[in-house]
Protein backbone atom coordinates (compact mmCIF):
# COMPACT_ATOMS: atom_id res chain seq x y z
CA UNK A 1 0.00 0.00 0.00
CA UNK A 2 1.16 3.53 -0.69
CA UNK A 3 -0.49 6.77 0.18
CA UNK A 4 0.19 10.44 -0.37
CA UNK A 5 0.06 12.06 3.05
CA UNK A 6 0.99 15.68 2.43
CA UNK A 7 2.83 18.15 0.26
CA UNK A 8 6.50 18.78 0.92
CA UNK A 9 5.92 22.29 2.16
CA UNK A 10 3.21 21.23 4.60
CA UNK A 11 5.95 20.38 7.10
CA UNK A 12 9.02 22.42 7.95
CA UNK A 13 12.09 20.75 9.49
CA UNK A 14 11.26 19.96 13.12
CA UNK A 15 7.52 19.69 12.49
CA UNK A 16 5.19 16.68 12.47
CA UNK A 17 1.59 15.90 11.60
CA UNK A 18 -0.96 13.19 12.08
CA UNK A 19 -2.18 11.32 9.02
CA UNK A 20 -3.62 7.96 8.05
CA UNK A 21 -2.26 5.02 6.12
CA UNK A 22 -5.10 2.66 5.32
CA UNK A 23 -6.70 1.94 8.67
CA UNK A 24 -3.64 3.07 10.63
CA UNK A 25 -3.17 6.44 12.30
CA UNK A 26 0.39 7.51 11.55
CA UNK A 27 2.63 10.42 12.45
CA UNK A 28 4.73 12.01 9.72
CA UNK A 29 7.85 13.81 10.95
CA UNK A 30 10.19 16.12 9.07
CA UNK A 31 13.56 15.90 10.79
CA UNK A 32 16.15 18.63 11.14
CA UNK A 33 17.86 17.58 7.90
CA UNK A 34 14.63 18.05 5.96
CA UNK A 35 13.99 14.35 5.41
CA UNK A 36 10.60 12.80 6.12
CA UNK A 37 9.90 9.86 8.43
CA UNK A 38 6.64 8.08 9.24
CA UNK A 39 5.61 5.97 12.23
CA UNK A 40 2.59 4.28 13.68
CA UNK A 41 0.91 6.96 15.77
CA UNK A 42 0.80 4.85 18.90
CA UNK A 43 3.37 4.73 21.68
CA UNK A 44 4.66 1.23 22.36
CA UNK A 45 4.21 1.80 26.10
CA UNK A 46 0.52 2.56 26.70
CA UNK A 47 -0.73 3.58 23.28
CA UNK A 48 -0.63 7.37 23.52
CA UNK A 49 -1.01 9.30 20.23
CA UNK A 50 2.57 10.33 19.47
CA UNK A 51 1.47 13.16 17.18
CA UNK A 52 0.23 14.98 20.30
CA UNK A 53 3.72 14.92 21.76
CA UNK A 54 6.74 16.92 20.71
CA UNK A 55 9.32 16.69 17.97
CA UNK A 56 12.28 18.02 19.90
CA UNK A 57 15.85 17.28 20.88
CA UNK A 58 17.42 15.47 23.81
CA UNK A 59 20.37 15.85 26.16
CA UNK A 60 23.18 13.61 24.90
CA UNK A 61 24.46 10.81 27.13
CA UNK A 62 27.47 12.04 29.08
CA UNK A 63 30.01 10.81 31.59
CA UNK A 64 29.81 14.00 33.59
CA UNK A 65 27.13 14.56 36.24
CA UNK A 66 25.47 17.92 35.72
CA UNK A 67 26.41 18.23 32.05
CA UNK A 68 23.64 18.88 29.54
CA UNK A 69 24.47 18.82 25.84
CA UNK A 70 21.21 19.26 23.98
CA UNK A 71 21.39 17.63 20.57
CA UNK A 72 19.32 16.19 17.74
CA UNK A 73 16.87 19.09 17.92
CA UNK A 74 13.96 18.20 15.66
CA UNK A 75 14.87 14.51 15.49
CA UNK A 76 13.43 13.14 18.73
CA UNK A 77 9.76 12.22 18.95
CA UNK A 78 8.68 12.48 22.57
CA UNK A 79 5.48 10.83 23.83
CA UNK A 80 2.74 13.22 25.06
CA UNK A 81 2.09 11.15 28.18
CA UNK A 82 5.13 9.60 29.81
CA UNK A 83 7.76 11.42 27.79
CA UNK A 84 9.54 8.42 26.24
CA UNK A 85 11.97 9.49 23.52
CA UNK A 86 12.16 7.93 20.06
CA UNK A 87 14.83 8.81 17.49
CA UNK A 88 13.08 9.41 14.16
CA UNK A 89 16.38 9.10 12.25
CA UNK A 90 17.16 5.75 13.87
CA UNK A 91 14.04 3.82 12.82
CA UNK A 92 12.06 5.18 15.74
CA UNK A 93 14.22 3.43 18.32
CA UNK A 94 13.86 4.42 21.96
CA UNK A 95 16.80 6.43 23.27
CA UNK A 96 16.95 4.66 26.62
CA UNK A 97 16.92 1.19 25.04
CA UNK A 98 17.37 0.80 21.28
CA UNK A 99 15.92 -2.69 21.42
CA UNK A 100 12.46 -1.10 21.46
CA UNK A 101 11.08 0.94 18.59
CA UNK A 102 7.94 2.45 17.17
CA UNK A 103 6.82 0.78 13.96
CA UNK A 104 8.20 2.82 11.09
CA UNK A 105 7.11 3.10 7.44
CA UNK A 106 9.07 3.86 4.30
CA UNK A 107 8.69 7.35 2.92
CA UNK A 108 9.55 8.87 -0.45
CA UNK A 109 9.17 12.31 -1.94
CA UNK A 110 7.93 12.41 -5.51
CA UNK A 111 7.63 15.79 -7.14
CA UNK A 112 5.91 17.76 -4.41
CA UNK A 113 4.24 14.87 -2.62
CA UNK A 114 5.25 12.96 0.50
CA UNK A 115 4.30 9.31 0.06
CA UNK A 116 4.23 6.64 2.78
CA UNK A 117 4.46 2.92 2.05
CA UNK A 118 3.36 -0.11 4.04
CA UNK B 1 -16.83 -0.19 33.15
CA UNK B 2 -14.44 1.63 35.42
CA UNK B 3 -14.52 3.36 38.79
CA UNK B 4 -11.53 5.65 38.49
CA UNK B 5 -10.18 6.53 41.93
CA UNK B 6 -7.92 9.42 40.95
CA UNK B 7 -9.01 12.13 38.52
CA UNK B 8 -7.66 15.64 38.88
CA UNK B 9 -9.98 18.52 38.18
CA UNK B 10 -8.30 21.90 38.25
CA UNK B 11 -9.61 25.32 39.23
CA UNK B 12 -8.47 28.62 37.80
CA UNK B 13 -8.26 31.06 40.71
CA UNK B 14 -10.66 33.51 39.08
CA UNK B 15 -13.31 30.78 39.14
CA UNK B 16 -13.13 30.74 42.94
CA UNK B 17 -13.90 34.45 43.28
CA UNK B 18 -17.71 34.10 43.22
CA UNK B 19 -17.42 31.55 46.02
CA UNK B 20 -15.20 33.65 48.31
CA UNK B 21 -16.34 36.20 50.85
CA UNK B 22 -14.39 39.33 51.62
CA UNK B 23 -11.71 39.88 52.73
CA UNK B 24 -10.50 36.60 51.18
CA UNK B 25 -11.70 37.43 47.70
CA UNK B 26 -9.60 40.57 47.46
CA UNK B 27 -6.40 38.71 48.28
CA UNK B 28 -6.77 36.90 44.98
CA UNK B 29 -8.49 39.67 43.03
CA UNK B 30 -6.36 42.61 44.14
CA UNK B 31 -3.23 41.09 45.62
CA UNK B 32 -2.82 38.14 43.21
CA UNK B 33 -2.46 35.56 45.96
CA UNK B 34 -1.19 32.20 44.75
CA UNK B 35 -0.48 28.98 46.61
CA UNK B 36 3.09 28.86 47.84
CA UNK B 37 5.13 26.71 45.46
CA UNK B 38 8.39 24.95 45.84
CA UNK B 39 9.12 22.64 42.92
CA UNK B 40 12.49 23.72 41.55
CA UNK B 41 12.46 21.57 38.46
CA UNK B 42 11.86 22.53 34.89
CA UNK B 43 9.12 20.74 33.02
CA UNK B 44 9.62 17.01 33.47
CA UNK B 45 7.47 15.80 30.55
CA UNK B 46 6.40 17.24 27.21
CA UNK B 47 3.75 19.51 28.77
CA UNK B 48 5.00 19.91 32.31
CA UNK B 49 3.12 17.64 34.69
CA UNK B 50 0.17 17.18 32.33
CA UNK B 51 -0.53 14.94 29.39
CA UNK B 52 0.30 17.04 26.34
CA UNK B 53 -2.96 16.03 24.67
CA UNK B 54 -5.04 16.96 27.72
CA UNK B 55 -4.47 20.70 27.41
CA UNK B 56 -7.78 22.35 26.53
CA UNK B 57 -7.80 23.34 22.84
CA UNK B 58 -8.40 27.01 23.76
CA UNK B 59 -5.14 27.02 25.74
CA UNK B 60 -6.43 26.56 29.28
CA UNK B 61 -4.56 24.07 31.47
CA UNK B 62 -5.48 20.39 31.54
CA UNK B 63 -8.30 19.43 33.87
CA UNK B 64 -10.11 22.78 33.76
CA UNK B 65 -12.94 21.88 31.40
CA UNK B 66 -15.68 19.35 32.15
CA UNK B 67 -16.80 18.75 28.56
CA UNK B 68 -13.22 18.07 27.44
CA UNK B 69 -12.74 15.66 30.35
CA UNK B 70 -15.99 13.93 29.48
CA UNK B 71 -14.89 13.45 25.91
CA UNK B 72 -11.26 12.46 26.52
CA UNK B 73 -11.66 10.41 29.68
CA UNK B 74 -15.14 9.56 30.94
CA UNK B 75 -16.81 8.70 27.65
CA UNK B 76 -13.73 7.28 25.96
CA UNK B 77 -13.05 4.79 28.75
CA UNK B 78 -16.62 3.98 29.70
CA UNK B 79 -16.30 5.34 33.22
CA UNK B 80 -18.99 4.30 35.65
CA UNK B 81 -17.68 6.68 38.28
CA UNK B 82 -14.68 8.95 38.82
CA UNK B 83 -13.50 10.37 42.12
CA UNK B 84 -12.20 13.92 41.80
CA UNK B 85 -9.07 14.55 43.81
CA UNK B 86 -8.27 18.19 43.03
CA UNK B 87 -5.02 19.54 41.69
CA UNK B 88 -3.55 20.44 45.09
CA UNK B 89 -3.66 24.05 43.99
CA UNK B 90 -5.01 25.47 46.10
CA UNK B 91 -4.19 22.92 48.79
CA UNK B 92 -5.48 24.49 51.99
CA UNK B 93 -4.01 21.83 54.27
CA UNK B 94 -0.56 22.40 52.77
CA UNK B 95 -0.42 26.11 53.65
CA UNK B 96 2.28 26.96 56.16
CA UNK B 97 0.40 29.82 57.73
CA UNK B 98 -2.70 31.99 57.45
CA UNK B 99 -5.06 29.12 58.23
CA UNK B 100 -8.06 31.47 58.13
CA UNK B 101 -7.41 32.00 54.42
CA UNK B 102 -6.92 28.26 54.02
CA UNK B 103 -10.28 27.60 55.64
CA UNK B 104 -12.00 30.10 53.34
CA UNK B 105 -10.34 28.57 50.28
CA UNK B 106 -11.46 25.08 51.28
CA UNK B 107 -15.09 26.17 51.59
CA UNK B 108 -14.97 28.05 48.28
CA UNK B 109 -13.35 25.10 46.54
CA UNK B 110 -15.95 22.65 47.83
CA UNK B 111 -18.83 24.85 46.67
CA UNK B 112 -17.19 25.35 43.26
CA UNK B 113 -16.57 21.61 42.94
CA UNK B 114 -20.22 20.80 43.64
CA UNK B 115 -21.55 23.48 41.28
CA UNK B 116 -19.22 22.96 38.35
CA UNK B 117 -18.50 19.24 38.47
CA UNK B 118 -20.55 17.06 40.81
CA UNK B 119 -23.89 18.61 39.82
CA UNK B 120 -22.98 18.49 36.12
CA UNK B 121 -22.16 14.83 35.60
CA UNK B 122 -23.66 11.93 37.50
CA UNK B 123 -20.44 9.92 37.16
CA UNK B 124 -18.38 12.40 39.17
CA UNK B 125 -17.84 12.14 42.92
CA UNK B 126 -15.93 14.59 45.06
CA UNK B 127 -13.34 15.12 47.77
CA UNK B 128 -13.95 17.52 50.65
CA UNK B 129 -11.08 19.97 50.95
CA UNK B 130 -10.31 21.18 54.46
CA UNK B 131 -7.73 23.27 56.25
CA UNK B 132 -6.60 20.52 58.59
CA UNK B 133 -4.10 22.69 60.45
CA UNK B 134 -7.00 23.85 62.62
CA UNK B 135 -9.02 20.69 63.16
CA UNK B 136 -11.93 22.53 64.78
CA UNK B 137 -12.49 24.54 61.59
CA UNK B 138 -11.89 21.48 59.42
CA UNK B 139 -14.62 19.66 61.35
CA UNK B 140 -17.00 22.56 60.74
CA UNK B 141 -16.45 22.20 57.01
CA UNK B 142 -17.02 18.44 57.19
CA UNK B 143 -20.22 19.08 59.13
CA UNK B 144 -21.32 21.65 56.56
CA UNK B 145 -20.78 19.58 53.44
CA UNK B 146 -20.23 16.02 54.63
CA UNK B 147 -23.75 14.81 54.00
CA UNK B 148 -23.65 15.77 50.33
CA UNK B 149 -24.42 12.50 48.56
CA UNK B 150 -21.59 12.87 46.07
CA UNK B 151 -18.85 13.86 48.50
CA UNK B 152 -17.18 10.54 49.27
CA UNK B 153 -13.97 11.43 51.07
CA UNK B 154 -12.01 14.06 52.98
CA UNK B 155 -8.78 14.92 51.19
CA UNK B 156 -5.53 15.33 53.10
CA UNK B 157 -2.19 16.06 51.47
CA UNK B 158 0.86 13.97 52.22
CA UNK B 159 3.24 16.76 52.97
CA UNK B 160 5.33 17.80 55.94
CA UNK B 161 2.66 16.94 58.54
CA UNK B 162 1.77 13.48 59.78
CA UNK B 163 -1.98 13.45 60.29
CA UNK B 164 -2.16 10.45 62.61
CA UNK B 165 -1.35 12.61 65.64
CA UNK B 166 -4.29 12.73 68.08
CA UNK B 167 -4.44 16.49 67.53
CA UNK B 168 -6.07 15.73 64.15
CA UNK B 169 -8.36 12.91 65.33
CA UNK B 170 -11.48 15.11 65.41
CA UNK B 171 -11.21 15.15 61.60
CA UNK B 172 -11.32 11.37 61.48
CA UNK B 173 -14.20 11.22 63.93
CA UNK B 174 -16.21 13.61 61.75
CA UNK B 175 -15.33 11.72 58.57
CA UNK B 176 -16.38 8.38 60.04
CA UNK B 177 -19.64 9.86 61.32
CA UNK B 178 -20.49 11.17 57.83
CA UNK B 179 -19.59 7.92 56.03
CA UNK B 180 -16.63 9.63 54.40
CA UNK B 181 -13.34 7.95 53.64
CA UNK B 182 -10.03 9.74 54.11
CA UNK B 183 -8.15 10.19 50.84
CA UNK B 184 -4.45 10.97 51.03
CA UNK B 185 -2.44 12.23 48.08
CA UNK B 186 1.12 13.51 48.08
CA UNK B 187 1.75 17.18 47.61
CA UNK B 188 4.99 19.10 47.57
CA UNK B 189 7.55 18.10 48.83
CA UNK B 190 6.62 14.84 50.49
CA UNK B 191 10.00 13.12 50.55
CA UNK B 192 13.49 13.88 51.76
CA UNK B 193 12.21 15.10 55.13
CA UNK B 194 10.42 18.09 53.69
CA UNK B 195 13.21 19.03 51.31
CA UNK B 196 13.42 18.57 47.57
CA UNK B 197 15.88 16.09 46.12
CA UNK B 198 18.12 17.43 43.39
CA UNK B 199 16.23 15.92 40.45
CA UNK B 200 12.57 15.40 39.65
CA UNK B 201 13.30 11.76 38.86
CA UNK B 202 14.51 11.21 42.42
CA UNK B 203 11.41 12.81 43.88
CA UNK B 204 9.06 10.93 41.59
CA UNK B 205 10.78 7.61 42.21
CA UNK B 206 10.51 8.00 45.97
CA UNK B 207 6.89 9.12 46.27
CA UNK B 208 5.88 5.72 47.71
CA UNK B 209 8.20 6.39 50.66
CA UNK B 210 6.03 9.33 51.64
CA UNK B 211 2.99 7.08 51.48
CA UNK B 212 4.80 4.58 53.70
CA UNK B 213 5.34 7.36 56.24
CA UNK B 214 1.65 8.10 56.38
CA UNK B 215 0.40 4.51 56.54
CA UNK B 216 2.84 3.73 59.35
CA UNK B 217 1.97 6.91 61.20
CA UNK B 218 -1.80 6.42 60.98
CA UNK B 219 -1.60 2.84 62.23
CA UNK B 220 0.78 3.34 65.14
CA UNK B 221 -0.98 6.50 66.28
CA UNK B 222 -4.05 4.33 66.82
CA UNK B 223 -6.35 5.99 64.31
CA UNK B 224 -8.00 2.73 63.25
CA UNK B 225 -8.35 1.43 66.78
CA UNK B 226 -10.13 4.62 67.77
CA UNK B 227 -12.18 4.75 64.54
CA UNK B 228 -12.50 1.14 63.42
CA UNK B 229 -14.89 1.93 60.57
CA UNK B 230 -12.69 4.65 59.11
CA UNK B 231 -11.47 3.97 55.57
CA UNK B 232 -8.20 5.32 54.18
CA UNK B 233 -7.40 5.41 50.48
CA UNK B 234 -3.79 6.06 49.51
CA UNK B 235 -3.87 7.84 46.17
CA UNK B 236 -1.16 7.85 43.51
CA UNK B 237 1.50 6.02 45.44
CA UNK B 238 0.90 2.67 43.77
CA UNK B 239 0.70 -0.56 45.75
CA UNK B 240 3.88 -2.53 45.13
CA UNK B 241 5.48 -1.19 48.31
CA UNK B 242 2.64 -2.44 50.47
CA UNK B 243 3.66 -6.12 50.98
CA UNK B 244 7.05 -5.04 52.29
CA UNK B 245 5.49 -2.47 54.61
CA UNK B 246 2.92 -4.92 55.97
CA UNK B 247 5.63 -7.43 56.84
CA UNK B 248 7.88 -4.79 58.31
CA UNK B 249 5.12 -3.29 60.48
CA UNK B 250 4.00 -6.73 61.68
CA UNK B 251 7.52 -7.66 62.67
CA UNK B 252 8.06 -4.33 64.44
CA UNK B 253 4.71 -4.59 66.20
CA UNK B 254 5.51 -8.10 67.37
CA UNK B 255 8.69 -6.82 69.00
CA UNK B 256 7.68 -3.32 70.07
CA UNK B 257 3.97 -3.52 70.89
CA UNK B 258 4.73 -2.21 74.38
CA UNK B 259 5.35 1.25 72.94
CA UNK B 260 1.95 1.44 71.24
CA UNK B 261 -0.41 -0.55 73.49
CA UNK B 262 -3.40 1.24 71.95
CA UNK B 263 -2.87 -0.71 68.73
CA UNK B 264 -4.95 -3.88 69.04
CA UNK B 265 -4.66 -5.56 65.64
CA UNK B 266 -1.72 -6.66 63.57
CA UNK B 267 -0.82 -3.78 61.25
CA UNK B 268 -1.26 -5.97 58.18
CA UNK B 269 -4.83 -6.73 59.29
CA UNK B 270 -5.51 -3.01 59.65
CA UNK B 271 -4.15 -2.46 56.13
CA UNK B 272 -6.40 -5.17 54.73
CA UNK B 273 -9.49 -4.12 56.66
CA UNK B 274 -9.31 -0.33 56.50
CA UNK B 275 -7.28 0.68 53.45
CA UNK B 276 -7.34 0.81 49.67
CA UNK B 277 -4.43 1.63 47.37
CA UNK B 278 -4.76 3.11 43.89
CA UNK B 279 -2.76 1.39 41.18
CA UNK B 280 -1.23 4.30 39.30
CA UNK B 281 1.62 4.86 38.58
CA UNK B 282 2.01 1.22 37.64
CA UNK B 283 5.47 -0.16 37.13
CA UNK B 284 5.76 -2.44 34.11
CA UNK B 285 4.98 -5.96 35.23
CA UNK B 286 3.88 -9.29 33.88
CA UNK B 287 0.74 -11.06 35.04
CA UNK B 288 2.86 -13.46 37.09
CA UNK B 289 4.50 -10.57 38.94
CA UNK B 290 1.17 -8.91 39.66
CA UNK B 291 -0.23 -12.17 41.00
CA UNK B 292 2.80 -12.58 43.25
CA UNK B 293 2.23 -9.13 44.74
CA UNK B 294 -1.45 -9.85 45.28
CA UNK B 295 -0.48 -13.10 46.98
CA UNK B 296 1.87 -11.21 49.28
CA UNK B 297 -0.85 -8.66 50.07
CA UNK B 298 -3.05 -11.51 51.20
CA UNK B 299 -5.97 -9.92 49.40
CA UNK B 300 -7.06 -8.97 45.91
CA UNK B 301 -9.53 -6.48 47.35
CA UNK B 302 -7.29 -3.61 48.51
CA UNK B 303 -6.09 -2.21 45.20
CA UNK B 304 -8.18 -0.20 42.78
CA UNK B 305 -7.45 1.07 39.30
CA UNK B 306 -6.79 4.78 38.82
CA UNK B 307 -5.77 6.81 35.80
CA UNK B 308 -4.43 10.03 37.39
CA UNK B 309 -5.92 11.90 34.44
CA UNK B 310 -4.83 14.42 33.15
CA UNK B 311 -1.29 14.10 34.45
CA UNK B 312 1.72 13.08 32.40
CA UNK B 313 2.06 9.70 34.06
CA UNK B 314 -1.56 8.77 33.30
CA UNK B 315 -2.27 5.04 33.25
CA UNK B 316 -4.46 3.83 30.41
CA UNK B 317 -7.26 1.47 31.50
CA UNK B 318 -6.60 -0.51 28.33
CA UNK B 319 -2.83 -0.82 28.50
CA UNK B 320 -1.40 -0.27 31.99
CA UNK B 321 -2.24 -3.57 33.67
CA UNK B 322 -0.69 -6.79 32.33
CA UNK B 323 -2.82 -8.58 29.72
CA UNK B 324 -4.88 -11.73 30.20
CA UNK B 325 -5.93 -11.14 33.80
CA UNK B 326 -8.81 -13.27 34.98
CA UNK B 327 -12.21 -11.63 34.56
CA UNK B 328 -13.09 -11.70 38.24
CA UNK B 329 -9.81 -10.02 39.16
CA UNK B 330 -10.32 -7.36 36.51
CA UNK B 331 -13.78 -6.67 37.86
CA UNK B 332 -12.36 -6.22 41.34
CA UNK B 333 -9.58 -3.91 40.20
CA UNK B 334 -11.68 -1.81 37.83
CA UNK B 335 -14.89 -1.49 39.83
CA UNK B 336 -15.74 -3.76 42.75
CA UNK B 337 -12.95 -2.91 45.17
CA UNK B 338 -13.69 0.81 44.95
CA UNK B 339 -17.42 0.16 45.16
CA UNK B 340 -16.97 -1.89 48.33
CA UNK B 341 -14.49 0.56 49.84
CA UNK B 342 -16.37 3.84 49.75
CA UNK B 343 -19.18 3.85 52.32
CA UNK B 344 -21.29 6.04 50.00
CA UNK B 345 -20.97 3.84 46.91
Automatic annotation (TrEMBL), chain A:
CDD domains: Rieske (cd03467). One of its GO terms (molecular function) is monooxygenase activity. Its cofactor is [2Fe-2S] cluster. Keywords: 2Fe-2S, Dioxygenase, Iron, Iron-sulfur, Metal-binding, Oxidoreductase. Signal peptide: none annotated. It comes from the Bacteria. PROSITE patterns: RIESKE (PS51296). Residues 3-116 form the Rieske domain. Pfam families: Rieske (PF00355). Belongs to the bacterial ring-hydroxylating dioxygenase ferredoxin component family. This is Ferredoxin subunit of nitrite reductase or a ring-hydroxylating dioxygenase. It comes from Salibacterium qingdaonense.
Automatic annotation (TrEMBL), chain B:
Residues 98-343 form the Amidohydrolase-related domain. GO terms for biological process: secondary metabolic process. The keyword Lyase applies. GO terms for cellular component: cytoplasm. GO terms for molecular function: carboxy-lyase activity; hydrolase activity. Keywords: Hydrolase, Lyase. Pfam families: Amidohydro_2. PANTHER family: 2-AMINO-3-CARBOXYLMUCONATE-6-SEMIALDEHYDE DECARBOXYLASE, ISO-OROTATE DECARBOXYLASE (EUROFUNG). This is Predicted metal-dependent hydrolase, TIM-barrel fold. It comes from Salibacterium qingdaonense.
